[in-house]
Amino acid sequence: MNICILTISDRSSKGVRDDLSGPAILNKIESLGWNSVGYEIIPDEINIIRDQLIQWCDEIVPDIIFTTGGTGFAPRDVTPEATEKVIDKKTPGISEYIRLQSMKITPHAMLSRGIAGIRKKTLIINLPGSPKAALESIDFILPALPHAVELIHNDPKSESNH
Hints:
Number of domains: 1
CATH class: Alpha Beta
CATH topology: Molybdenum Cofactor Biosythetic Enzyme, Chain A
Distance between the termini: 19 Å
Mean pLDDT: 96
């Protein structure tokens, strides 16, 4: 699978703090044999997030975009709002399941506002900004991701994988 990783962080985009989540996600997808076809660090700006998601979905057409960061309650946390502006279909089960499983680890998981959805042929999934929480979230949904991508691509094999 082809994956893009978008880290959303004011501090990391300015070089004030190292991005730990993006590289952690990159290591995870590479361990799965998946390909990284895009990685960026951008600030918590709704228009910049929106434009990057649109560019990747419309030009690179990855199977999945993982965003990390900007899903909380802070005033500048706008990743879900930016994602909502670009998706054609919501996929609430993904984000609901991430929150459900994360609640078993920490009650702070209920503060995540991350969403997931589909733009054209790309599944976009908002992950938390913490490297630990981002990797746990991927692990929670990993069993369903290959089938989700098959369905999005209208792959004839998808029927046999139910």
